[in-house]
Amino acid sequence: MKKTSIEVNHAEKVVTINVAGQMTMTDAEIFSNDYKTKIGPLNGSDYVLIVDCTDMKVLTSEMTENLTNVMKTYKETGFKKVTYQVGNNKILKMQLSRLARNAGLTQSEVVES
Q1: Which are the contacts of 11, defined by CB distance < 8 A and separation ≥ 6?
Q2: What is the side-by-side order of every strand in the sheet holding 81-85?
Q3: What is residue 22's predicted lDDT score, i.e. its pLDDT?
Q4: Angle between helix 61-77 and 25-39 (nearest 10)
């Protein structure tokens, strides 16, 4: 089962990424390829990115470095703003906040939804 999905709403200039479950390295590779295909042609500075992590599990140490690299990709894309929605998961909120700082993703926020 695919653990991520990417939707681009060109009219509203919003990219929504949904992440569910516990990511593996294989899942991360699939996501990376999907991201390049769907987001590569966009002018990131025109778009807002919403990452819905409400169904995502707490990160393993293996996936921490990978997710930091994904966040660096978001930074390179140059989104106007990046919002991570974490539901009511304080640990995941803390992890994502720390990783975003480490990746230099200053235009991001982690919100409980």
Answers
A1: none
A2: 4-9, 14-21, 48-56, 81-85, 108-111
A3: 84
A4: 10
